[in-house]
Write a structure and sequence with these properties.
single chain; 14 helices; 39% helix; globular; binds NADP nicotinamide-adenine-dinucleotide phosphate
Length: 345
């Protein structure tokens, strides 16, 4: 689905046309350029940048706001993309507590930023700040990308489309052809994945979550999207279950793709999400986690003979789509992929 009906066709003018970028001559005069993958700026740095001083270089025109955000690989990926496009704009990471989000967005605009990315915990609140919102962000109820144009702020969500592209890229398969089980379907990433599956008209969707209420809410939204063009029948296309072995076994027998959208697996000491014995060679397993590169779930799935991939390709594709929103040009995906590979080496 095109973003914002391709924003170049909307009344939003391409952001890069609105603001002059600093010349390389000026950039060369900046005494010590911080390594933007290593540096984490603060809201105080953004305030001083908006007043024309402080440590944040003038050519920083994009950033990710998060809390925490120091771990983010987006600067490495986005700066490689901006350089490959020949644009003299750079991308930084800024730690921003939840209570400072609205101010941070205002300051970034005042500092001539083109836009922003949002990560945990800002994606839901960010939507309230937008003056206009694209269809996907409205549907998901959250925005991970903001585009500035004068006083206007447009919100986009590239997470769902990023997932579609990641599944195609990793496995050569399309989400719309797959019976999908989402582990952690009540969280932010799990909700986006579930609603994207519904938008893609996946033939079967199983939502697994520790807190059942949250998954039931998501199921109701997914069912609405699916049922609008289905004949009514006894079989609900969306099933909600807790993490219980017998229920998981039963549902896995009718699943093609398992997606982990929980944060379980980031630590080596984390318990298994699914008993290893339930994993079979005919499954495909995608873990949204990319650090570590091989989680316990992926290790168990590989041992069972299943196809696997981690979340790096999702990070890449949602980032590439964000870059297209800001620049209105096709993203240099290969350069961004190479930078991510180097950053995770
Ligand atoms: P979130 O909103 O905090 O959701 C966390 C989810 O994990 C919830 O469903 C939660 O269940 C579940 N969970 C947490 N601890 C659990 C446990 N001990 N047992 C069972 N379930 C547990 O976080 P998020 O933003 O959705 O992110 C989730 C994961 O996706 C993170 O690892 C994040 O790094 C990754 N992610 C990756 C990408 C990418 O581009 N690759 C993009 C977005 C997110 P409850 O509802 O019961 O609390």
């Amino acid at each position: 689905m095109p973003l914002f009906h391709s924003h170049s066709n909307s009344s939003f003018s391409p952001a890069l046309d609105n603001y002059p970028l600093p010349s390389s001559a000026i950039r060369g005069l900046i005494p010590s350029m911080p390594d933007l993958q290593q540096t984490t700026f603060t809201i105080a740095d953004l305030r001083s940048r908006a007043e024309g001083r402080g440590p944040m270089p003038d050519d920083v025109r994009l950033a990710v706001l998060g809390f925490p955000v120091a771990h983010s690989l987006s600067p490495a990926m986005q700066n490689a993309g901006l350089a490959a496009l020949g644009l003299e704009a750079r991308y930084a990471k800024i730690e921003c507590p939840p209570e400072d989000l609205a101010e941070a967005v205002d300051r970034a605009r005042a500092a001539n930023f083109l836009g922003l990315n949002l990560t945990i915990p800002h994606k839901f609140e960010a939507l309230k700040i937008c003056t206009e919102v694209d269809d996907t962000a409205r549907l998901l109820g959250s925005a991970n990308t903001l585009l500035f144009d004068g006083r206007r702020t447009a919100g986009f969500n590239t997470d769902g489309t990023g997932l579609v592209r990641a599944i195609r890229d990793s496995f050569g398969m399309d989400l719309r052809d797959l019976r999908v089980m989402i582990l952690g379907a009540g969280g932010g990433a799990g909700t986006a994945a579930a609603l994207q599956c519904a938008l893609e008209k996946c033939p079967r969707l199983v939502l697994v979550n520790r807190t059942m209420e949250k998954a039931r809410d998501v199921a109701a939204r997914a069912n609405q999207l699916l049922q609008s063009d289905r004949l009514k029948g006894p079989d609900d296309p969306v099933t909600v279950i807790p993490f219980e072995t017998d229920l998981l076994r039963d549902q896995l027998a009718r699943t093609d793709l398992v997606i982990n959208a929980t944060s379980l697996g980031m630590k080596r000491s984390d318990p298994p999400l699914i008993p290893a014995a339930l994993l079979t060679p005919d499954l495909t397993v995608f873990d949204m986690i990319y650090r570590p590169a091989v989680t316990r779930l992926l290790e168990d799935a590989q041992a069972a003979g299943a196809r696997t991939a981690n979340g790096l390709s999702m990070l890449l594709h949602q980032g590439a789509l964000s870059l297209e929103v800001w620049t209105d040009r096709p993203a240099p995906v290969d350069a961004m992929r190479a930078a991510l590979a180097k950053a995770t080496d």
